[in-house]
Amino acid sequence: MQLLINKSLTEQIPIEMIYLSEKNQFTQRKIVVKQLDGEYIRAYCFLRRQTRVFKRKNVLSIMPVRHEIVRSS
């Protein structure tokens, strides 16, 4: 998990994460990590279209972004 977070930070590539909010809601976010600060991850969130701060302990999983296949008719 840490490897993908670091790769997003150094290469500015998006990753997907499953996150547990303070309200105990699960969300799937596509983010680009901007800064690592101890127990927090500062990242651009494509869902909210702004930079957000995420608690590392609430990150349940990290994965590469899945690319959608576009089929022509």
UniProtKB/TrEMBL annotation:
Protein name in the entry: WYL domain-containing protein
Superkingdom of the organism of origin: Bacteria
